[in-house]
Structure formats: C-alpha cells, structure tokens
Amino acid sequence: MKKLSVLLSTILAVAIVAISFTSCEEPEAGVYKPKKKVAKVYEQEVGEAEYLTQEWKWNGNQLASVSFYDEGEFKGMDEYIYEGDRVVKVRDNYGYYAEYSYNGKQFDKIKYYTPEKDLMAEFTFQYDGKKIFKITLQANDDFKNITDMMNRGYVGQLLSKEGMKMVAEKVDSHSKETFVINLSYDGDNLTSIVVEDESLTFSNYDTHSNILYNFLPFSAYNEEVECLMLSKNNPGKAVFTVGSFNITTTYIYTYDGDFPATIQSNTVFEDESYASITRIIYK
Questions:
Q1: Suppose 194 and one of 36, 182, 200, 205 were both cysteines; which one would form an S-S bond, judging by CB atoms 3.0 to 4.6 Å apart?
Q2: Position 181 pLDDT exceeds 90
Q3: What is the pTM of this model?
Q4: The dihedral of CA 249, 252, 257, 262: what is its sign?
C-alpha cells in the first residue's frame, strides 16, 4: 500500500492537494487575492494517522512561504518573492529557485536555476486567447542533476515513474531535449494534460470554486503540480493513462462555504485500491 501511495502522490497529486485561491476580478498570473487564507493542510490514508503536509505563512495579504512535510517531518520550504502584488521568484531552502516573467497578465516564461545561479531548464507558455494550450520545456544539457530538478518540479509530477525514466535516459545522454505539454479545456475547466504518450484527464467538475484557481504552475520545492490553477471548478474524476496502463481516481468533497474543506480521493490501480483524505485549515 505504501508503494502505491508514493506512486499516486507523484502522478495524481495535481488533483488532490488542497490550496485555495479565488478572485472576483479577472485572474492575473502571479497575483494572489484569496478570499480565505490557508493555514495548514493535513492528509491521511483512510484508517491511518493524519499528518501535517503543508504550513502556510502570510505577510498581510501576501503568501510569504509554504513549508512541506512528509508524515509530519519537515521536507522543505518555498519562499515567495514579489514585485508589487506579483510573484517574480520562488526560492527553496536548498537554494534552487524559479524566476517568472510575464507578458501582460499572462505567464511568459519560467526559468529554473541551481544555487550557483546556473540555468537548468526553461518553460515557455503559449496561449489560445486567455488559455494556456502548450507549455514547452527546454532542458539544459550541461547539468547531470536536471532529472532531479524535474522530479522535484513540474514535469516530474505530470509523468509516471516510467515516463520519468524515459526522460532521464534522454537527458543523461547529454543532448539538449525539448518536451511539449499540451492542454485542453471544456469551457473554463481543464480536461486533459498530454506529454508524449502519457495523459491525465479530468471530468465531472462541480460548481464550487477551484481550490487551485490562479495559483502558480510551479514551485521551487513542492513535489505536487498546481496545474489545476487553470480551472475554475473542482474535478470529480481524474484518469492517468500511458499505453494500456490506467489509474482512475474519483473525488468526494465537503465544503467550507464555496471552498473545499476536505477532499477524499478513491483510486483504482490494477487490482489495488487506495483512499486518502486531504483536510484544509483556513486562517
């Protein structure tokens, strides 16, 4: 069960992490105006002990940092750095950091650096109107530890372990690689993320505010992807597919007003099943 838990936390954490950002105004990338401020996030496998997974610190109305925990033990921390109301850098406690650039109200590029300020990788965003439909990753071939960064960051969480192994083999060949992430929507909600022969699809959205709406698509440390910041509502089902291999997760929500208070995820993986509950505490 623990092995399955680790696998699912890597592949499907995009749909089960509890973070809350919404705004009455048109969303502007990198700007956060939450109606409620997250204080702590807890998670547990059904029938087992609950553990702290995140702790949020605020400086007035701005998010100052998020600390991450594994079964209650400290793993790392993201620090948010602003110009005005907009985040321009996310830095972790190991010295790795991401720098954000913008084109108007939209993300333009995110660049990833080592503690020595060497460029490791770069994401470029393409839009169809106001929606991101393509994200391109250009990995720098000068760094052997690029796969570790990718595991910690965005692409590593979109791909399965098998997918990351394939990427690692390509990167370790010391050739510069480009990976394309394609996104599709139904109205204001994300329906699929496709990377080469792997896909993550979402359906059965509710009518409540998405807990990830308008959040950053990358953090310097967080092992969970905030890609659902692109949707207004919360999905009821997520399916990860690579070849004939499938993992299906359904979600049951309770709400604190218009915001999720708990999320129970029920996952079927071959002949195994896995259930967990995420609980959000607001300030």
A1: 182
A2: no
A3: 0.76
A4: negative
